[in-house]
Amino acid sequence: MCGIVAYTGKNLCKDLVFEGLSRLEYRGYDSAGFVCIDKHHGQFNFDKEAGGSSPIQRLAEKIHFDGYTGMAHTRWATHGLVDTVNAHPHFNCNKAVAVVHNGIIEGHEVLREQLLARGHHVISTTDSELAAHLFNDEIEQRSDLKEAVMAFVSQIRGAFAFVFMLTQYPDTLVVVRHRSAMVIGVGEDEAFVASDFIAFADKTNNVVFLPDDSFAFVRRDSIELYDFSGRIVPYFVQSLDQKYIEIDKGVFEHFMLKEIYEQKRAISRTIGFCKMLGSPGIDTFPHHYEHWSVATEYNDSIWRQLGLSIEQIKSLRYINLVSAGTSWHAACIAQFFFEMICKIPTRVFLASEFRYMSFFPQEDSVYIMVSQSGETADTLEALRLINSYNVPTIAITNVASSSIVREAGGFLPMQAGPEISVASTKAFSTQLATLFWIANRIALERGTITLEEMYIAEEQLCVAAEVLESTIEMYKFRIIQDLAPKYMHYSHFIFLGRHISYPFAMEASLKLKEISYIFAQCYPAGELKHGPIALVDENTPVVIFSVLDELLYHKLLANASEVKARNGHLVVFAFEGQDELIGIADTAFVIPPVAPLLGPLAMTGLMQFFIYHITRQLGMPIDKPRNLAKSVTVE
Ligand code: G6P
């Protein structure tokens, strides 16, 4: 992962690259570094900061040198501790080459041995530093820079994006890309390089996305682009219609809280957007049900957007979802949507496992990649594998300019708006809304549901979004005043769910772990008796998420009773009318009933709000938890 921003041109670079770097904090915030070139003395000036809450900001404040060519890096540690030695930029022995790196160099142990044997002085424990030494060796052996890059990349395995600066070529940025996104911004007498366009979005909209397996020499007035065998690659400068919008917390103490409260609107924007694609010209919901008999309000532009024909939709026999983290939980919930609404067998894969399993391409199947950022390396690599078999792929992401969107056959953007808090909230709920809508839309196209049922489904989504927000208000003061101060003292939690509430319980368990650092474990409730029940005692709250299904509710009730019978502490998220479950709980959150498949969506706000306030009581850095990053661009 890590974020890279570089600049060469008519302006001093420090402020420009730091502004860009602070926008890339979502890629990691362990440490930061900056280097620029002092042309007169033919040397690098650099500095680094590591650890603490805002290394980028601390570094920007402390640096008092500047230059016309420079680069900065924000790190998410993979190899080596979080300290200033391991922070980028790295240099070769005589500081002729500086490098910043995103990705992982495979086999770096062997490379390190080779470099040490050749007399190099390697000071960090990173894989990245090795690139500076190796590249310098290649430059010294050849007079031609292009040949040196080719020789360098032929010795490097893994996934990487590098930017090199060389004292010998003070006006050139050498950019190398293999399976890790890099984009060049073309300005007037200036050029930017970054791992994400937003780093320089308000400076220029003219960009060149580096193709995979290519390298470029970027100067203020020219770009030379080559593939790894040295052939010139023609490039075109495209204009992106995307602005960077500075987002602040407004009246909220944390971005996470703000984003929890944004969910109802984000869901309604998402439904509105989906409806617009499904039926251009109609952007309001049909509240007058007598018009249902008009059966032509949905058209086909949605399928074009998804890169599928109506015939493909009609002949679909399998749906597959691939994702990671919170997006994987959304996909696991969506499995129930596709199977129960579309009646199509659906499988869900963890992206990090997918590439290493046997792959059986099926005819009449589609793979849906679900990713908030659209940059998660595991999901992207899984997509590349699936694409290589020519199986249709769709991206559901929140970032329209992302790599996954560019490489998938079609895509549907969620309308969550930028999510800043590392812990995902509104991206999760809008993923659920998008997947629920698309499941219904597929079912409508295949004649599995009627137009009337499609409208009802959209209304149900609106109701669930309403409940998501209103229940926060219902419990707000109790959570803040009584419950969060009480539950912050527990060091372990068990989460249980059944059927559709099981993946939701997994999401709750993850949320608690990632922001509060409290240990939490999640099980399907039926598994409790097969082992985890040994952990049940009065000091380990068991949190159960109910479902709107009579049979399953009674099964969950039995599991809850098993907890109480062992003197366990029971917290339930139940629906109105589930009185026995509510009655035996030590703490009960009671939620108005919604459509059964939307139970998790309706509970989302309250669950997040409860966990947010436990964490706030503990005084943790909620928006930027330790060791995490918003976008995980390494495997
Ligand atoms: C990281 C984030 C999680 C996120 C996961 C998948 O681990 O911290 O919040 O769920 O990546 O990210 P994606 O962008 O693919 O949804």
Structure characterization notes:
The chain has 635 residues and is of the alpha/beta class. It folds into three domains: 3-239, Aminohydrolase, N-terminal nucleophile (Ntn) domain (Glutamine Phosphoribosylpyrophosphate, subunit 1, domain 1, 4-Layer Sandwich), CATH 3.60.20; 258-449, Rossmann fold; 473-618, Glucose-6-phosphate isomerase like protein, domain 1 (Rossmann fold, 3-Layer(aba) Sandwich), CATH 3.40.50. It contains 19 helices and 24 strands. Strands 3-2-4-1-10-9-11-14 form an eight-stranded antiparallel β-sheet. The chain starts with a strand and ends in a 17-residue tail after the last helix. Residues 280-296 have low confidence and may be disordered. 6-O-phosphono-alpha-D-glucopyranose is lined by residues 324-327, 371-373, 376, 379, 422, 424, 628, 630-632.
Strand tally is 24
Instruction: Choose one word for the global shape.
Output: globular
What ranges have pLDDT less than 50 throughout 5 or more consecutive residues?
A: 280-296
Our estimate of the beta-strand percent is 15-25%
CATH superfamily of the largest domain: Aminohydrolase, N-terminal nucleophile (Ntn) domain
Oligomer: single chain
- Tally of alpha and pi helices: 19
Distance between the termini: 9 Å
Helix content: 25-40%
The rounded Rg comes to: 26 Å
Question: Could you tell me the mean pLDDT?
Answer: 92
CATH class of the largest domain: Alpha Beta
